[in-house]
Amino acid sequence: MSLRLVFLGLLAPSVYLAYKLEWTEKAIEFFTGPGSYSRIFAIIVLVLNWKALPLAWTVRIWHSMVLHLLVRPFHTHTPDKLFHPVISESHASIAELDYRFHKSNSTYLADVDIARSHLASHLLARSGHLAWNNAKTRFVMDPSDPSRPARGAFNIGLGGVFCSWRREIKPYQSYEMWTRIVSWDRKWLYIVTHFVQKGAVKPRSWDAPENFGPTRAAGDEPRDWEKKVFATAVSLYIFKIGRLTVPPATMLQGSGLLPERPGGWATDVNGSGDVAGSGESDGTTIGADPERGSWQWVEQQRRKGLEYAQHLTAMNSSLHGQFEPGEDGALGRFALG
């Protein structure tokens, strides 16, 4: 609604400005004058490949943050919605194709950036606001002096991304990115993004009051949905206030996404980033079928996702040490790298 009001408010002055500057005549000359075919063709090419234009990635990132942090109201999702996906749509522009005329593997990560930003900005808007104004909100306290809030600017960092490709995406083919939280430990929040054929799978319902499109009726089960997945990426997010690492559980609690748990959720950070020092659990026994939205159910889902995520953590923490400085020589140095 706010965007509509802004648009209506700017409509009249825009029309008047166009009249005073004679933009109408200039536009007619642009599209009908000498060389108009070339200009029209160039505009079409630019429109169809806008994702590859300079600063397009920056605009897409800022759009996701502005949309969820400034335009849309902060959502109050309950813990049973914690692992639900955010769906983003895109397409493979001609500038993203490789020499085989498929979407280049290197371009997937730029799309993952946008999809991940939508998820984090949507789910963690409330806790992000608290952390951004930590000096006033006292959302995170300084471990060295618990009487004062942690000092420094709030920041979200990307620790690593793993991407696996299964099927190619053809030129200008549309696809959806289904992005959700898969797990977390004391240091990292793990986010998975599936690249899915557009329209192949529909959600049962939408969590927000808005109607974002068609939903899947009861009894309508997806068939062979694995064949509709083009690629899958897993990202590691880390939250910082100054040099202090803010545990993901703290951010999730600040947005009301974690239920109350006896003894609380682990909030301290150790060197490995493991939960309770084990990388899996704190020894708490969970029943086979906990109630959805309960702390047992959330912990069960977190442990399930961590079975996959911990392998990425191990690689992320130790693979840098496998760097070989060429003690026995190097193959060569080549240009245009």
From TrEMBL:
InterPro entries linked: HotDog_dom_sf, THEM6_lcsJ_thioesterase
Domain of life: Eukaryota
Recorded family membership: Belongs to the lcsJ thioesterase family.
Name of the molecule in the record: Capsule polysaccharide biosynthesis protein
Species this protein is from: Clonostachys byssicola
